[in-house]
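Appendix B.2, paired examples.
Example (i):
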Amino acid sequence: MKNYPWLINQYKKITKKYFNNKLHPIILIQAHIGIGISQLIFNIARWILCLHKKKDNNCNQCLSCILINQKKHPDFYNVDDISKHKYIGINIIRTIIDNIYHSSQQGGAKIVYFSSINKLTIEANNALLKVIEEPPKNTIFFLNTTNINKVINTIKSRSTIYYIAPPKEKDNLLWLKERNKIYNSIQLLTALRINNNAPIITHKFLNSNELKKRNIFMIAIYQYMVNKKHIDLLTIILNYSKKKIITWICYIILDAIKYLTCKKYKIQNLDQLKLIIKIAKINNFNILITHLISWIQCKKILSYSYNIDKKLILTEQIFLLMTEILNNNNI
């Protein structure tokens, strides 16, 4: 059974409560994306549904374990497997309700898991609320969110709330080093920080082409600042997705602001320190803040506006970057 080291205590706490018949049927979890909450709930569900469970482990051999490992267990309702849509509508809730009010097919508990309770529509929220007010016997609801403030108060008031913090940076680094030996500490720490300290997402990032793409992007910016005549930065930047461009540029401007105010403290792009220092030396604090706000506004426009030439808007934003941040007269 795969339990991430930073979630073992939560796993033991919840399974112990169930074993002692003290587990609340509605569990609301607030946690960051990328720290393994879905795996935690899957492991808990597998243990609860196991027909021959031991103290902390499922047997992994009974019919229940086999079915849940194959994602076919009739008493485990993972809403992500049921609905692939952006939002969870009332029909999905009705389907689950119709099933959980019958006896469990394996004779044990019934478990319902929402990986993001914030995806429910208003109608779906209301339907779920009616169920959790008086949940069916031996039925457990796991509701996950990244922002508990967006969960309606009536659901919060009927739940036991678990706040699961991300692991500490040093613990994340140890875990990543064991699995990514080809990278040095600076590379690992950079990858971790630009992925919001989420170890699982960082691990996937390190084992994809994303790090290489980002490095090419950063090298292109540095080369442009050193020798503008020999690189077409605009063409290089426009080869990337709009979302990546904006994220990477915002992070590098933010790091330059951090360098001006508190030197190297909590800089995200640690492997690009030369570039960050160069940008910080030729721009003052107010210029960098203005451009950071401008890029954030650009992101909002590109995300929420329709019937506009998004490439034109982004191109204009890049030209501003090149002329005012990277091409300062003091360089």
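Example (ii):
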Amino acid sequence: MNRVLHRFRTLPIRARLSLLVAAAVAFAVAAVSVTCWFIVQGKLYEQLENDLGQAASIQGPQRMGIENALTNCTQTPQTTYNGFRNSYSQAITSDGTACLLGNSEGEVEVTQADKDIAKGTRSDKGIVRNGTTTDGTPVRVMTVPLTLENRVTGETSNAAFLVAVPLKGTQSTLNELALILLLVSGVGVLGAGAAGLAVARAGLRPVDKLTEAVEHVARTEDLSVRIPVEEDSEDEVARLSRSFNSMTSSLASSRELQQQLIADAGHELRTPLTSLRTNIELLTRSEETGRPIPEADRKALLASVKAQMTELAALIGDLQELSRSEGQRGERVQVVSLEDTVESALRRARLRGPELTIDADLQPWYVRAEPAALERAVVNILDNAVKFSPEGGSVEVRLTSDGTLTVRDHGPGIPEDELPHVFDRFWRSPSARALPGSGLGLSIVARTVEQAGGQVTLGHAPGGGTIATVQMPGAPTPPPENPAAGQ
């Protein structure tokens, strides 16, 4: 059985569907055919029993003929009874002797039940059974009790009257019906199998297209493949096709972003690597030729190498941050106090700009985000304000009761034509390219805030400078803890 099930599971889906449809139809046809056969059999036997009942109704002259036959009982059919034609009829005495009657086609074998009826030891009104004649012919038999009265003495005696009809015609009809039902059932099962195969092919045609598309993508890595789907179709195959199209579209977009990131990263890495290689070659050449570089120049070269290494480390960290998937972030999302996050970022910002005055006014606000990513985003905003603030200047940080965070500096501001590009990856203002940075800070800020469901903007501050505004969904109080979670 397990081997059969295993073989069935290894068949193609259309073959399994065809077999299941054929099996279901076969079961239904078999049930209907068997039921029909038994119903017809019952009706035919009922008709036979009605005929036998009429033949067993003994009246007037027929009764006198049976009495005469019992008086002169012989194995030769008596002509004193002309009853049911083409039948077997005989009387049975109380001692079990069978007396053939007129028009009888032969002798029916007498059973013990027939003898008991003739003796009067059975209380029922008679029996109906299948039997055979002495020459082996199958018959339907009815035996009824018979009470005889001696007209001279008035005494009564028990006997039985047996009448039977051949079953050959009935059995032939039933056999022909069975053959017809078998043929019809076979044709029905074959037709159902063919119909099931046709339906399976038609129903699985979209699956075949989807399979071909997947195989094409796996073979060629061509993510532009789309499966046509009817707009008003809502079946499972249509949903699967839409999901596949959405998946390939997302993969194509992800690949484009990845290629763009690699290209931009290669472009940005080229400058510090070139500078590093130049400085290191100068130092190496000095050692090889034995001509020392002046101490001031040597210190400048080493400082430049250190600065370039720091820039490379920051760039690599930013690239790692941008390359992390949303799924990796989603596993660490939790309720975070934006007030505490800004406080922690402010401590780091004050160390980077000790000459600046950083004024903060923070109200409680709780959001759902990844703590480390959110703090990095706030630090990047503050670093941007510190970087472009004049020496001795000030930075105002506000977190209002509705969850709006603003960071305002008093630097030169951002030209109007550059505002649309400030959140692009690796984009740097021409006036800021001499300053340290990779051009990824604000891009990381935008991504982090958007993933938390918020939005960030940069604009001109009244009176000069730049103001960064971050709005994130949340609440002034943390949500209540789930009691069930701690159990």
